[in-house]
């Protein structure tokens, strides 16, 4: 199962409150909410608006402007592929393309059967064993075509 928490308004409020003094405003909060729940649930928008003294339209505008934010829950499994420098230099581009092709979705999307969400991530701290990926919180390094295929197959199970 993916490592995200189920939606909870109380938890969302906690996240918003814990970011009340953080620079960067709405984008930072949206990211924190997505990190917790795997997407930004619609009820989070008015909660952020209220906490930041903004209109819902303003928060919604930020939410829809950036393509980073997911509007729907993530799939059952989440496969994150590192797209940062060390992994790219080690052949990460071809492996990311391979995962996209095997799953039939582009990075940032979920398969039609809701089983797998494929996401880019920017450094997993596993550069020494690049190229790297993470399946539901489990780190995997030293990827090659064979290991990527096995990882995709595991995500689809
Ligand atoms: S660049 Fe991929 S793990 Fe650091």
Automatic annotation (TrEMBL):
This is Formate dehydrogenase subunit gamma. Its cofactor is [2Fe-2S] cluster. Keywords: 2Fe-2S, Iron, Iron-sulfur, Metal-binding. Gene3D superfamilies: Glutaredoxin, NADH-quinone oxidoreductase subunit E. Signal peptide: none annotated. Pfam families: 2Fe-2S_thioredx (PF01257). InterPro entries: NADP_DH_HndA-like, NuoE-like, NuoE_N, Thioredoxin-like_sf. The lineage of its organism: Bacteria, Pseudomonadati, Pseudomonadota, Alphaproteobacteria, Hyphomicrobiales. NCBIfam families: PRK05988.1 (NF004638). PROSITE patterns: COMPLEX1_24K (PS01099). Belongs to the complex I 24 kDa subunit family.
């Amino acid at each position: 199962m993916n490592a995200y928490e189920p939606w909870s308004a109380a938890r969302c409020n906690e996240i918003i409150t814990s970011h009340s003094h953080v620079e960067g405003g709405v984008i930072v909060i949206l990211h924190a909410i997505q990190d917790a729940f795997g997407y930004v649930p619609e009820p989070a928008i008015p909660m952020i608006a209220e906490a930041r003294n903004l209109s819902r339209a303003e928060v919604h505008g930020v939410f829809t402007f950036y393509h980073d934010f997911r509007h729907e829950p993530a799939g059952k499994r989440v496969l994150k592929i590192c797209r940062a420098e060390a992994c790219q230099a080690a052949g990460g581009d071809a492996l990311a393309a391979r995962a996209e092709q095997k799953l039939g979705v582009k990075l940032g999307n979920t398969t039609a059967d809701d089983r797998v969400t494929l996401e880019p991530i920017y450094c997993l701290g596993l550069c020494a064993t690049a190229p790297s990926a993470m399946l539901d919180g489990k780190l995997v390094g030293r990827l090659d075509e064979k290991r990527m295929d096995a990882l995709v197959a595991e995500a689809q199970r």
